[in-house]
Write a structure and sequence with these properties.
Order of helices and strands of chain A: HEHEHEHEHEHEEHEHEHH
Shape of chain A: globular
Strand content of chain A: 5-15%
Number of helices of chain A: 10
Distance between the termini of chain A: 6 Å
Structural class of chain A: alpha/beta
Largest interface: A-B, 29 and 34 residues
Number of strands of chain A: 9
Oligomer: homotrimer
Largest sheet of chain A: 5 strands, parallel
Chain lengths: ~300, ~300, ~300
């Protein structure tokens, strides 16, 4: 089976079959990263451009490693060194990159919809590596891969997502993906962090973390953007930790075999207690490992590979 | 035929035969970028250092892609991460890089003559990727490659270069190259943007864009450095666009089959109207594609390859 | 013989046998950088992450070149683009990198002990590329390789290290390494630049450069951090140059065949006179060349290679 899409822009667009195809392909790539020679010749002679208009270590590194493990050439372009400083429009920059004949452009951008705009204008495959507060589909896919590896399935599970739902592309992509795959999703956060009409995405909404995580199979804690502390979105980090942080006490409300997830980087002692982040329920580092495999799968499938 | 030069520093130094050798070699490389496997083993085991002391996306990316398509290893060094911050002299930095045994050093530098200084002091090949307001020879070569591909020749054509001639290394390199190859060159720009004694370079000088582009086969529009707006070099962007911008009205003065060129990044609606930049006469994106091929040709020829 | 250590953290930990193993292996790699095809397949499929939390050109470039000459894949992460800006702890960042299954992590960090902390927490090999004012072992190893190549031995030689001993990781690593290998080490610098209890490291301490370099086989000049000029550590650059700079006059106190070394980047006319830096006694550029070979040796040995 092949992926017939040109681009991977968001979870909203993916069918159940497409999600399964990506997760199964990723599963088959996980072993490459454990070999003595961590490299396959699959994408030799292909060129992948990582166009990061927002700072990122882990996502850019994960895509770069994924590309190199498939023997593709990788080019990094970051905002600070780009001609963004010269006032070029995103579309003009993209069409210039297009003219250099890469195979895939991975883009992270502060503006929602930027990858979609790009994908419409250039013939290469575009992968959304995070656009504004909109979507971060590779994060959701790696999360779902991790859940499937640990639980054997996604359908029927109860997942809680806790934190700044309104500003989180990770939350949005996971809500789309998890509900599509048949999981129940509960969200919780301070009132200022819950978007209006969020129920229309098919989730239940809670104002206390306890209500969201009760009986959960999965808890996804979102990162607090600490630089927003003084924007009156939440009262103080201390209060946030007290009312919305995951800790050894409130985690007891979840199932015994609950998985604790976090997209990273974590704020220890704020949204998640250190002993929970490092504890037996945490799969935070498995998420990172699976991220490389998911990105290998997408680079492979978008380049015409089949499962 | 081989290129006997160690370095590619400027168009001023190149003979007609050398220019033809580079353009023909580039022509033969254009096909590599369209293959399924966009890579040839030509420069395997060679090391190319991209030393960019000024920010650049497209030129650095173009050189990096060119190197990788030839299977060379590429190293990027940018000013912001370099020991330039520690006050090291350029020569000392270059001699240090020399001691690490790369094969080619590509340099962009804000100071005119920096690549020439380097080339004298180190044994490796040096390619000038733009030095101050002096030369940008790979840009001129890709421009000439584009002209030749579209018009079949350069000799006898009438080219107009419009904009900030005084501060443009693109203009200087093209004037050297185009006149050497037998084209007639007319330049136009506001009085503050026309260097003294420019006629001595063998061009005709005009103070109105209309006079320069009348009957032209080629129009090269230069990028306005918008950050200079308040230095009294030109009155306002609006006036600049009105008097020196290329638009659907004044382009009628040129030949019907005129080519519109721009080194990018373009300022839409300032030096060039959007419908002209995206219109049928525009070869702006072909220029970008040809840039990779020209740089492949230079890396190949300077490493001892023959046509 | 193999290196049984997982990590290369400092000269303090290395035995004479280990130092000799590294230097001999480096010696065998020096030739690779002089070939037409400067590349061996030794580390194909290995992944090396260069994690530079302080700016650096030469050390990062040297490691990157070393990795590529061994056919490893290399990933660069610099502080300015890293999630350090998001407040992630070093350990969390490192464990994330660990989860992506690289083979070696090379780290430069402003805090003494950061590489050691890392090495304890992750399973991959860690190489210290400079930590605070603590150690810079690959610099000391390349210095010792250079000495051995020129003098045939290290034991019994008299070495002088001159400058800001207190804040220099280069000085500390060389003191550990040179004394271990049987050289005598004399240090000199202004009183504010000499650490207390430095005699306990087995060196003799001098307050005048003349006293340290008298009869020396080796003079290592340290770089003055000019940004510290106004911190009252030393009176003025001019006075520093006068009293502690190496010049054609005071160098006569050393042996006739003295080697002049400097870790770079040099401040011409401050700690070292230009004619000395470029003169016949100087091996500053050989140090740089040997740096690539030493780093190739370490990457090779830490990946399980044997001499």
């Amino acid at each position: 089976m092949r992926l017939t899409k040109k681009d991977l822009l968001g979870m909203k667009d993916l069918s159940i079959d497409e999600i399964n195809l990506i997760l199964d392909t990723a599963e088959s790539f996980i072993e490459v990263s454990t070999r003595e020679i961590k490299k396959v010749p699959t994408l030799r002679g292909k060129m992948i451009i990582n166009l990061f208009m927002e700072p990122s270590t882990r996502t850019r590194t994960s895509f770069e490693i994924a590309g190199k493990r498939l023997s593709a050439d990788t080019i990094n372009i970051s905002a600070s060194t780009s001609s963004a400083v010269k006032g070029e429009t995103l579309i003009d920059m993209a069409r210039n990159l297009e003219a250099m004949n890469p195979d895939v452009i991975v883009i992270r951008h502060g503006a929602s919809g930027a990858p979609h705009l790009l994908a419409k204008r250039i013939r290469q495959s575009v992968i959304n590596a995070g656009d504004g507060a909109h979507e971060h589909p590779t994060q959701a896919l790696l999360d779902m891969m991790t859940i499937k590896a640990k639980k054997g399935r996604i359908a029927g599970l109860k997942a809680a997502i806790v934190g700044d739902i309104a500003h989180s592309r990770v939350a949005r992509s996971n809500i789309y993906g998890l509900t599509r795959m048949g999981a129940q999703v509960a969200v919780a956060g301070p009132a200022t962090m819950l978007p209006r009409f969020i129920e229309q995405m098919g989730v239940t909404v809670h104002h206390r973390i306890e209500d969201a995580i009760r009986g959960a199979d999965i808890i996804m804690m979102l990162r607090i953007q600490m630089e927003r502390e003084h924007q009156n979105i939440f009262p103080s980090l201390r209060e946030y930790a007290k009312y919305f942080g995951l800790n050894r006490k409130n985690i007891r409300l979840a199932k015994d075999d609950v998985l604790v997830m976090h997209p990273g980087p974590i704020n220890r002692g704020i949204e998640i207690a250190p002993d929970i982040a490092d504890g037996p329920a945490s799969v935070i580092l498995e998420q990172v490992t699976n991220g490389v495999a998911v990105r290998m799968a997408l680079l492979y499938l978008l380049s015409g590979g089949k499962a």
